[in-house]
Structures are given as structure tokens and as C-alpha cells.
Amino acid sequence: MSEDLYKEIILDHYQNPRNKGELEKSDIDATDYNPLCGDKLTFKMVVDKDIVTDIKFSGDGCAISQATASILTEILIGKTVDEISKFDKNELLSSIGMPNLGPVRIKCALLSLKVAKLGTFNYLGKEFEEED
Q: Which own/partner pairs from 117-123 qualify as long-range (CB within 8 Å, at least 24 positions apart)?
């Protein structure tokens, strides 16, 4: 896909976010923020037999962080908690079509993955170590 198409996808997810909102009950709940840009995200997930059956995100931030959170929620529904804990940042960057973001913007793009992994690692009783 062309870079322009990826930019359109980011803009669409920013303007029309998927799975943005709240869940009354969740099995996984995690929040983190990016102090460089002021982004803050919360992910809540419902898990049934180790499979994520529902996911919502909330928070505020730049277009990249909000759009990436929207895209990631669509990717994660139907995955097992273990699959999410192993989801690679390169997979996410490939999905959003922006593998060569600068150091500040990469933090914006990866915040949603960090939050999702924080929650899943906690759910699994494992210690989370952020990827470089």
C-alpha cells in the first residue's frame, strides 16, 4: 500500500475510532501515558477461555496514538491472552504502515501496545519488560 493510503487509514481511525469507550466489567484493565506527547490510554478487555472477546480503549492524545489504539483493538479481538503478550511491535508498525517514525512519534504509536501488554502480562501473572 502507498504511504498516502496508510495516512488515510490513520486519519480515518483517528476521526472514527473503533472500540473506543468503556466496558462495565473487564478481566484486563491497564493504563499508561506518554509524557513526551501527553498521550494517555486505558485498555479494558473481556476474556473468555483465554480469548479476548471484547476490548475497549479510552484516553486522549495525538492522532497517531489514538488511531493506533483503534487499529490495535481490531487486531486483538479473538486472540488469546498469550498471543497478545507475544505480539511484536514490528507487527503493529507494519499494520499502521509507519515503520520509520521518529523517536517521539514511535512512542505515540507504541503506547497502545504497551498498555495492552501491561494488562495481559498482569493477567498472566508475569512481569512486563518493555521492548526496545
A: 117/84, 117/85, 117/87, 118/30, 118/32, 119/28, 119/29, 119/30, 119/43, 119/45, 120/28, 120/45, 120/81, 120/84, 120/85, 121/85, 122/28, 122/30, 123/27, 123/28, 123/47, 123/81
